[in-house]
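Changelog-adjacent note: as of this version, every example in the card shows the full chain rather than a window. The one below runs 105 residues end to end.
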Amino acid sequence: SFQFLQRNYDLENKSLSKDNKIQLLKKLVGISKTSWSSLVLMDKRSGFERLNKNAISSLPSIITDDIDKLYVLRFASQGCRLIGFRQGNIYHILYIDPNLSLYKH
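Full-length structure tokens:
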């Protein structure tokens, strides 16, 4: 879901190229055919990587105390990241980070 996508980390980000957008779409189509349990067990290069929410200094108010982990999804040859949270079977994307500037790697 893109419902909570944050400004400056959205599809209008100037660092996000047309090719990055195509790779993002391909990645989303691919993961939508895979179960959560499989995605979490995969290597972080092909599935999700868990990230402590404290790694990001300014989180939106939708991230409440009961959400302790964020999930990072890599795309575009590992050069871009999606960062979001899970609610049921929905991955809510908060940030599209094409230049890896949102948190320390």
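Structural remarks: The longest strand covers residues 80-87.
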